[in-house]
Predict the structure of PEP-CTERM sorting domain-containing protein.
Amino acid sequence: MNRLMCARAAASLAVVFFSFSAALGQAWVEIGDAPDDIPNRQDTKGVGALTQIRGSTGADDDWVDVYSIMITDTTAFYATTEESYGNMTASATFDTRLFLFNEDGTPAVANDDFIGEPNWRSFISDPSTFPNTVAASAANVSLTPGKYLLAVTGYDNDPLDVTELILFSDTGSISSDNLELHGPNPDAGAFSTWEFAGESGDYVVELGGAEYCAIPEPATISIAALGVLGLWGVRRQLRSTL
């Protein structure tokens, strides 16, 4: 095998290798358009810690993205679009809101603004570790390890029941106490729809205490593993011919 053939083979296998690495990495990148109608969602698939979700809203009436995540450590869990928090990898080009639902679609916690102006970014966690004021509606909420649905949207969008009651907050809207962590509205029923189009744009949600909700298909892992082994073999062959 000459050097050119080896180089081409290595390049081809590198594509497989890096595709597999992305699946095993710590970031989930939105595929197409993540669903918005709870409890439908886009499953995050990978192995190990999930530290970022990257996506965008706004195109073709896409105002909400919903993802399934696995919370593994409730004391360490958080999800934020605030650039100054944690590892400082979060970002957003718009005024965000974050809503966390239980796997069955019932509301858990939500936040409009973590710090306020000028960024108007969002932050959610278990009420026991929330850095700001916890609203009365979230006072008795306690997250447990398991699968949850994380919804990313923009101001001033809210999830509604069939009678148009907002699912979160006992004061009518999370905008009324925008810096607080809100919990379920006890008077609201099951999710029906989103209120209206909110602000939109690109976002990076930084997470802690979370993992991917699903492992990639075995076939994907097997093919990628073969690619990694093949790349290793080609590299050895290249070294022997140089």
In short: The chain has a mean pLDDT of 84.
